[in-house]
Amino acid sequence: MSQSSYHHGNLREALLERAVEVLGEVGVEGLSLRGLSRDLGVSHGAPARHFSSKGELLSAIAKEGYRRMTAAALMAAEGKTSAVERLRAMGRASVRWAMRNRAFYSAIMNPDVNRYGDEGLQASLQDYLAVVRAAFEAAQAEGWKPKHKLQALQIFGMATTIGASIIFSDYLKSNLFGELNDEKLIDEIIDLVIPPL
Amino acid sequence: MSQSSYHHGNLREALLERAVEVLGEVGVEGLSLRGLSRDLGVSHGAPARHFSSKGELLSAIAKEGYRRMTAAALMAAEGKTSAVERLRAMGRASVRWAMRNRAFYSAIMNPDVNRYGDEGLQASLQDYLAVVRAAFEAAQAEGWKPKHKLQALQIFGMATTIGASIIFSDYLKSNLFGELNDEKLIDEIIDLVIPPL
DNA sequence: AAAGAATGTTGTCAGTGACAACATTAAAAA
DNA sequence: TTTTTAATGTTGTCACTGACAACATTCTTT
């Protein structure tokens, strides 16, 4: 943790932090390990000690993204008085989180990332899915669409969430739908997936 | 159109065709103009005459993808006897098309592509959206969720379609939900978005 | 037949990811 | 404390890539 001029002292975290900034500015294709090195005043070989490839760096960002998205969803559910309301809050929170954390979300969604099949990444995704699944299960137990299979309901809900996140976090596409009042529209879409009680 | 050894004769189409193959195998990051040149037995500078950058090539693929997806949706709607059934068929067809055309879909979804803001690409997307919008409008006029705003319904439906396409076309993620019977699940999800009459 | 436009080739450059050999510092062991 | 070892950073190098410029060949149009 010391900062001699030779050892950075906190390079791993610094790389992740700067990478998230860069991702938000120029996207996955514009991110480069060497660029990060320059930004942090470190040699081009240094990142390799922490991330053996660009894919591994992106995986780490995706993993942290899942952690934060899960936390955001759980926090939004707190204090709600019914499982249906909790699920609705989680859906809203997920879409909002994606809009406000494009950098993380772009790492999560990048198909070229998952192929590097980080174990930790898989675990984080599993955790997220477990939380989501429990919420769907509880909502159904409370009377939401009792005739449908839980698996179908979960994929339905998650698909809508993912799609909405993509649409709302892409300025370009958003414009194609006309002017969007994001907050109201998100609420209305949540209503369509899980009608309020 | 002749094939002297100097002029390829059909390079633009050949590049697109091969690029789609490569995209399906190794994804956007694995696609390279020089690799395509090698595959086609052409010099590394040749593609520049047709696509001034990798982004432009991807844009062209995305554009063609929109065209085909639109065609697939319209074809699926043919012969259906109600607007609701047409909309349901279009949703099913879109998800199936994405599953069967991952290469095109990965170009369509790649956020780093759209930034190159091809005019033609924008136009194709507009065409697709116009077709979709008309279908949603007709379904609503027929009694589907009359109390909701058309814009919200369209984004809801498209979001679910996009999300389902992503989930179903990703082997890795599919496994996380347990074994998926894709066809049946897609049908059930369509039912959840647009209940059958 | 000649001129000009398309199309393809060759050469080159800087940027990149990846790796190996080496340097420095921190941590652990003795 | 001293020594050894592990962690971390540096430098050098390689092949690959996208992009561009100068040049060559062929097609099209006049």
Termini Cα gap of chain A: 53 Å
Shape of chain A: elongated
Structural class of chain A: mainly alpha
**Total count of helical runs of at least 4 residues of chain A:** 10
- For this structure, what is the CATH class of the largest domain in chain A? Mainly Alpha
What is the residue-mean pLDDT of chain A, rounded to a whole number? Answer: 92
Summarize the structure.
Chain A has 10 helices and no strands. Chain A is mainly alpha-helical. Chain A starts with 10 loop residues before the first helix and ends with a helix.
Task: Provide structural commentary.
2 copies of one chain form a homodimer. Chain A is an all-alpha fold. Chain A folds into 2 domains: 52 residues, Arc Repressor Mutant, subunit A (Orthogonal Bundle), CATH 1.10.10; 135 residues, Orthogonal Bundle (Tetracycline Repressor, domain 2). Chain A has 10 helices and no strands. In chain A, α8 runs antiparallel to α10. The first copy, chain A, starts with 10 loop residues before the first helix and ends with a helix. The mean pLDDT of chain A is 92. The first copy, chain A, binds a DNA duplex (30 and 30 nucleotides) through α2.
Observed structural traits:
homodimer, mainly alpha, Arc Repressor Mutant, subunit A, Tetracycline Repressor, domain 2, 10 helices, DNA-binding
What is the topological layout?
The structure is a homodimer of 197-residue chains.
Chain A: H1 11-30, H2 33-39, H3 54-77, H4 83-100, H5 102-109, H6 111-114, H7 119-141, H8 150-168, H9 171-176, H10 182-193
Chain A binds a DNA duplex (30 and 30 nucleotides) through residues 2, 4, 6-9, 11, 32-35, 42-46, 48-50, 52-54.
